[in-house]
Amino acid sequence: MRKLFFVVAVFTALHAQANSVWVEQNKLVGEIGGWRIYAKEQSPNTVTPSADVFTLNQAIERMLRHQLDSVNYLPGSESIVNYYLLSPAQRSALQQRYSIIYETSRAYYELVAQREKLVHMENVLEAVEAASELTSRMYKVGNVNELKLLTQKKDLYKKRLEYKSLQAKYLDAKERFIQRMNFDSRDLKTDVEQRLPDPPKDSRKLTEKEQRAIDLGVINNPGTVQTRSTGRVSYDSYLEKYYKAKTYKDGILPTQKKISEENLLRYNGMLIDVFHLLEDAENQSKAVIEYIDANLAFLIQSVRLEKDLVDAQMDYSNINVR
């Protein structure tokens, strides 16, 4: 009964406050999509790649041509499958190939992630600017006090600084990618994909050969011990990062989206005001940014794992442990 009385009291108070500005609030909230920032994110499956997009595969092919061919590329060194049939030169080329793929993929994923976060933050900044404008209008008609007005202005200043910081990080990632690709004015092409690929449905499983290559074994050789240890640590790190990215994608983001939808219903029912929606938008923003960072870490570790497993299998073969 006390809870029901509290709800009724809050509803009455909000309704009394809203007489002069509630319609205007609803209009502004509608203009920014109900503050549902996450809902504005396109699903990767619905994004149509542009013909001008420089893909990860294109980046890898470019770097293999520029770095591997000029040094020691040999036919047959593209895969670990027939490793035992390769000559020492082919084995060296194979190891270098995976190092190039790792470094190129890392630079590419970092650039895509910074671009994705920057686009997302543009939507968030738009929402905060709309809230600041709304607060100023409410202050003029006496619906909020000066403290609320100043607090909202401070939040806007901080969000603009955050956006500027992301811009700088994006430009830095872009320049590092240009350096990695060795682009010049004749072939500059940095229109990368819009979003990082989502984590796969299931985590990667080690093959029997890979598992043998990273097991402790009985060879007391410092180099071999380190190589095998690196492989085990790399796989453990992969599983941890996969679990984190997958939890954000399948658990945290959908839950946050439902929370946001419930808050919007409460707002439309005049149970909460627009500033609660702003707080919800901030929570959405944090969740999306955290997911992008978690997914980036997972994707980079996925490529590193392949390199570390190749190194372990090469060492396993070289010491004739079958």
Explained architecture:
The chain is mainly α and 322 residues long. The chain has a single domain, classed as Outer membrane efflux proteins (OEP) (Up-down Bundle). It has eight helices and no strands. α3 runs antiparallel to α4, α4 runs antiparallel to α8 (274-318) and α6 (208-214) packs across α8 (274-318). The longest helix has 53 residues, at 88-140. The chain is elongated, with a radius of gyration of 26 Å. Residues 1-22 and 30-47 have low confidence and may be disordered.
The CATH topology corresponds to: Outer membrane efflux proteins (OEP)
Quick one: CATH superfamily?
Outer membrane efflux proteins (OEP)
Query: What is the CA–CA distance across the termini?
Result: 75 Å
- CATH architecture, by name, is Up-down Bundle
What fraction, in percent, of the residue positions are helical? over 70%
Instruction: Determine the structural class based on helices, strands and strand pairing.
Output: mainly alpha
Please identify the top-level CATH class: Mainly Alpha
Rg (C-alpha, Å)? 26 Å
- Domains counted in the coordinates: how many? 1
Structural key phrases:
70% helix; mainly alpha; 0% strand; 322 residues; disordered N terminus; Outer membrane efflux proteins (OEP); 8 helices
Topology:
Blueprint: H1 2-17, H2 22-31, H3 56-68, H4 88-140, H5 146-181, H6 208-214, H7 222-268, H8 274-318
Task: Please summarize what this structure is.
The protein contains eight helices and no strands. It has 322 residues and is mainly α.
